[in-house]
Write a structure and sequence with these properties.
The chain has 370 residues and is α/β, with parallel strands linked by helices. The protein contains 13 helices and ten strands. The protein has a five-stranded parallel beta sheet with strand order 4-5-6-3-7, sandwiched between helices. Helix 2 runs parallel beside helix 3 and helix 5 packs parallel to helix 6. The longest helix is centred in the last third of the chain and has 17 residues. The chain is globular and about 55 Å long.
């Protein structure tokens, strides 16, 4: 069963299309049941499987991660609670005593940008022998947004019957999230839900550089105890053998491409940043519904950290949905100040640069260059 419909493919410039859309004119309202229903791998990862992951022969940790995750998926074919007859998710021999599984109840994929962590996480979701409604996949931000929409107790009740919860881009941005997620995952593990997560930060280092992590050491250690960590080494596949980020186009080229491409949006970049402040990040996915391409004029450095973090979420949703991004102004690797790229959120910013650069390459065919 496909987790979602394939993303639309933007058409090249061929004649005249209706006027472009505007993200700034959209103010989507997303019901809570849609947030739950959409907790599946995004279109970009709809067809990935362990067999389509190509480990780098120079990085043995990649092949090892595939082996461990295939075993992990194979151990999830029982209903929650049936795992009591196992030694744990990573020891598959049966025991006679009906004891709860020992050791971590989940797996944590740690590695740099673009080494295929999300590919592997989505492959695990697909390989787990359960109906799509019994397994959930979402980013950390989407999970916290779900709690905000449903409330803590309803979220626990909704997810407790699942076999597997996959959390992509696991990060802790503030102390409140630390306590919230620690409590949520503890309740889900007690209910027999298996966990899997990806991040660029080891579990014990979550929150480092952003708040006084020492004050929340107990919660952070509690989170770490739920996972067995798998380190995945390698270089960013999005940049292997590819040129640097493409140079921005002119305002005229971007505007003409937007007007000629059916389903494209056209917005002034500073205006879009202002609009994002008025739309909750949980709605950014809906904000991009039906788009064939995003065209932006006047790209410039983001003015502050709050704005930058909102842009990171939008970049993630665009990347998930494979929406090309055509832009004028500054190249995407100059969006964030040097201070931002050295601060506590630097990994988020580098991920956004990597993803927007990939989407900018995808948008090149929209422009009729000589």
């Amino acid at each position: 069963m496909s987790s979602s419909s394939p993303a639309s493919v933007p058409a090249p410039i061929t004649g005249t299309a209706p006027g472009p859309l505007s993200l700034c004119a959209r103010e989507p309202h997303v019901p809570a049941d849609r947030l739950v229903a959409e907790m599946v791998p995004p279109p970009r990862f709809d067809s990935v499987r362990f067999s389509t992951y190509l480990p780098d022969p120079n990085q043995p940790s990649q092949s090892e991660a595939v082996r461990v995750l295939e075993d992990f998926a194979g151990g999830l074919g029982e209903a929650p609670g049936a795992a009591a007859g196992r030694r744990g998710f990573f020891g598959f021999g049966r025991t006679r005593a009906p004891k709860a599984p020992a050791g971590p109840r989940g797996v944590y994929l740690d590695g740099g940008y673009g080494v295929g962590k999300t590919h592997l996480l989505a492959s695990l979701w697909h390989a787990t022998p359960a109906e799509p409604s019994r397994k959930a996949f979402g980013t950390f931000v989407e999970l916290t947004n779900l709690v905000g929409a449903l409330g803590f107790q309803q979220t626990v009740q909704t997810l407790s019957g699942h076999r597997l919860l996959c959390i992509d881009e696991f990060e802790l941005d503030d102390p409140g999230d630390t306590v919230l997620v620690s409590s949520l995952l503890a309740r889900l593990v007690e209910a027999g839900v298996a966990l899997a997560a990806t991040s660029n930060t080891l579990p014990g280092k979550l929150g480092e550089g952003r708040f006084a992590a020492v004050d929340f050491l107990r919660e952070i250690q509690g989170l770490s105890a739920h996972f067995r960590t798998l380190r995945i080494d390698g270089e960013d596949y999005r940049h292997r053998g590819l040129p640097e980020a493409p140079a921005p186009y002119s305002d005229e080229q971007v505007t003409r491409a937007a007007r000629a491409t059916e389903g494209a949006s056209l917005d002034d970049f500073p205006a879009l940043l202002g609009h994002l402040a008025r739309v909750h990040p949980s709605r950014y996915g809906a904000l991009t519904d039906g788009l064939a391409a995003v065209c932006l004029t006047g790209v410039r450095p983001v003015p502050d950290q709050s704005t930058a973090l909102r842009l990171v979420v939008l970049a993630d949703r665009l990347y998930d949905r494979e929406v090309p991004v055509l832009a004028s102004g500054l190249p995407f690797d100059r969006l964030f100040s040097e201070e931002m790229l050295k601060g506590g959120y630097r990994k988020k910013y580098f991920r956004a640069i990597s993803r927007l650069t990939a989407l900018a390459r995808d948008a090149g065919h929209l422009v009729d260059t000589p």
